[in-house]
Amino acid sequence: MGITSESCRSLLAKVATQFDTKPFIPHPVFKQGDAQTIGAHFWPGRFRARDLTHDEERLFEVEPGSRVLARCRWQANRTEHPTLVMWHGMEGSTGAPYMLTTAHKAFRAGFNVIRVNIRNCGGTEHLTPTLYHGGMSNDLRSVIDELINRDRLSRIFILGFSLGGNQVLKLAGEYGDNPTPELKGVSAVSPSISLGVSSNALMRRRNWIYHREFLGRLKMRLRVKEKLFPDFYNPNGLRNIRTIRQFDEHYIAPAFGFANADDYYAKASSQALIRHIRIPTLIIHAQDDPFVPFAPLRDPSIAANPYVLLLNPKRGGHVAFISRNSHDEDRFWAENRVVEFCVALNF
User: Fold this and answer.
1) pTM, 2 dp
2) φ, ψ at 185 (rounded to 5°)
């Protein structure tokens, strides 16, 4: 039996009080959302390659014929330690800076850490004939099930960033009143809980630099898939694709049985499912996120859920949160709060 609503409300209130002593104050050089977002990506010395020397590569079968590649860092006697499973954002990988630094911090806090490449990402297009979409929560469920059944891990935490944040929240909501007992906590940083809202924001003129980057990567991936699976993909139509929505309409929606892009966005988004979460959950989202708007998180049902703690600083950008003060070992405030949250729940 999981934690009761009153017990969870009390627990999250204590965590919130703990966080109150470490408020997010943006770095004076990176006050605005775009500056935070871009600054975090190019922050010097954020990660050292030597920290990866003990990572193990592992393939998880998520459905027949489709596998995802994970990089695992195990504690000695892994079954005696909690495990953090990490899910990156759109067109990211296990090598994204935020994945690497958060993994390092969690490992030092005593966690096994598993960084998972979403289908096709991180150079893994050959591991599946399919594409991927923003609501593939069953892939995460398959990874968790294998860790429980094969590895006998009994304390699992999941963390998602951006698009990965939508997927972890969607899975938590899908569990509803019957979450797997081994799943102890959920965290999401800058989650795109409404894919339609995020798509529209990304296509705004002010966000052209982000939109161009994401769309270019999606097109490139489709060309790679065509070379690997020529019977499945025809990239000729790409020349007419000018927006993310068009890509989703012409490629993603039909590939996964959605009627169109709007149907895909509605069914793959986690917003309507967050009210059903019954696992202690932390959501961190800046109100100035440049292309994943905060507005969907104002949904009253989210604030009313005693299992959800929402931290919503006015500043912070997208998966950035570069702090003026280093309360912790570095200035990446959201990463440090996530690890602190997992530690607080590991009892």
Assistant:
1) 0.96
2) -165, 155
